Amino acid sequence: MVMTTxxxxxxxxxxxxxxxxxxxLAGLHGCAARTSPPPPRTEAPPESVPxxxxxxxxxxxxxxxxxxxxxxxxxxxxxxxxxxxxxxRASSGEIYxxxxxxxxxxxxxxxxxxxxxxxxxxxxxxxxxxxxxxFVRERERIIDLSYEAARQLGVVGxxxxxxxxxxxxxxxGSPVDLYSGNFxxxxxSFASRENAERLRAELNPRFGNAHIVTFDRGDRLxxxxxxxxxxxxxxxxxxxxxxxxxxxxxxFAVAE
Length: 256
Prior knowledge:
six-stranded mixed barrel; Alpha-Beta Plaits; two-stranded antiparallel sheet; about 260 residues; alpha+beta; Barwin-like endoglucanases
């Protein structure tokens, strides 16, 4: 087909227009590609209150430990952690021992003594909080048990189990005072009532108020020997030091 001069001019104008539009679109695309995305929003830490535990951050989320565990009670799932963390440093600064009776909690004060009851078999243990966690499925899981605590509760096999946890005291050397009121001090726990009675009789003349508290773990009875009685935190701390100097380094205060 032979095109006239006018038709050729119109054809050229059309091609030039198409080229211009294509260049404009390419330029706009290039600008969009070069535009930096807005910086991600970061969550500000909660305000620190003088005299209160400092907040900490894990996986981009801030957690605020509570100042004391007076009256603390909680229900949810317990999980456990073992060989992968054995021998590594816990949040408290000590070395994690999977065979010790310890646990991790997100907000309880480090050093809190917690009674854990497995709701499916009614077994009970006491553990000391020395680490932070769990941070996986945290809406369901409330405590990470050591391997030994999980073994005694029957949690190792299934991996998790429903539990109730109750704060019952404070471990020796803990910087956190949990209770005001009456304190006594546990110095031993025995499966044999006879052994417990022997220690009670030996300690009563030295420390006073030596008595036995029966503890049902669910599969076995234990007889806990406790001594002393204090009515203030200052008195309790001094009494605890006295017990440790007299050969009871594992004694700890409990509220009765």
